[in-house]
Amino acid sequence: MRSSSSSSSSSSVVLRRKTPCDGSDSDCDVDFEAHLNSELFTLTYGALVTQLCKDYENDEEVNKQLDKMQHSFNIIIYIINHCQISRGYNIGVRLIEDFLARSSIGRCQDFRETADVIAKVAFKMYLGVTPSVTNWSPAGDEFSLILENNPLVDFVELPDNHSTLIYSNLLCGVLRGALEMVQMAVDVRFAQDTLRGDNVTEIRMKFIKRIEENLPAGDE
Amino acid sequence: METRFTRGKSAILERPLSRPKTEVSVSVFALLFSELAQYCQGRVYSVSELQARLAGLGQRVGVGLLDVLVLREKSGKRETKVLNMLLFIKVSVWRALFGKEADKLEQANDDDKTYYIIEKEPLVNTYISVPKENSTLNCAAFTGGIVEAILAHIGFPAKVTVHWHKGTTLMIKFDEAVIARDKALEGR
């Protein structure tokens, strides 16, 4: 049986499933299997990134600090990139529960299996695309996910003054947050990005260590 | 504003505008939206400000969506009558966004400027539950923003507000001029 997922206690807009399980089949919330056309998702993500850019450019305090710094504009982009990661992290820690409940995947034995599950099951389930897993490091602790098309960036172009913005950085946060909840500390970053002129989108994931159960979760 | 150029690939402007084939799951959208709401909440001081922020974000989405939808659903012909416009929203816009039509479209009994779009369980509120102290907050203000932007840009300026009534109700109040124009069109 699935219970309500945990929420961040500080905010008052709580994340929780509302539809109760009626016990008729193993997958209770039939509605959550439904899929949406990706347009609304793409546009909503665009609105979020635009809002982030606006907020951090107009932020009084940020600007005061930036007056003192040389490469001020790069700092704004750096902040936005980081903000996306933390937003993504919040999404990831909830997404993993949804994922574990909906797929019957058990614990992965090693990092290779994790990579396969992420690419073939999770990405397919949530974003409707299947990236390929390549470029394994010799030690087997680092790999790349290559995405031919990324639904987050349909019809998106980066203007000049945001050329260092990692638009889909949210994805990195989601992956990091989700894996941390299953006791894996990973480092996730974009190695290539179609929005910045590369041919494909490449996400590089590196296994850092297994997290022991008694460490407080989610300490940033 | 800033000048922009397409870096090498201007292919983005040549892409066809047909419905995208990729489908994302409901949960990933609902999670993204919930995160959006929490982000906005961290930067405002009141419920009405939060709703206004969500409406603002919805307006960005609506602006991007309008031309594409009119092109696809109506082969580029825009509606000229209020009722047809509202049906377009209830059916086509809702289906493009959420995969199904809105539940009900009603007109106010006493006011010919006001219409209601009613939905029992809006998709955007799937992963949002509101505690008692903020009970007036309805995150479907985001959808309200989408509708408001679409109406404004298609020539039917209106104010859209969101209420908890029979589920979620979007109250659409058209400007005087819109109704007057509509009446004149009927008289012709």
Explain how this protein is built.
The complex is a heterodimer of chains A (220) and B (188). Chain A is built from five helices and five strands; from the N terminus they run βααααββαββ. Chain A is of the alpha+beta class. In chain A, α1 packs antiparallel against α3, α2 crosses α3 (72-102) and α3 crosses α5. The longest helix of chain A has 31 residues, at 72-102. The two termini of chain A are 31 Å apart. Helices cover 46% and strands 14% of the residues of chain B. Chain B contains five helices and five strands; from the N terminus they run βαααββαββα. Chain B starts with 22 loop residues before the first strand and ends with a helix. Chains A and B meet through β1, α1, α3 and α4 of A and β1, α1, α2 and α3 of B. β1 of chain A pairs antiparallel with β1 of chain B, so a sheet runs across the interface.
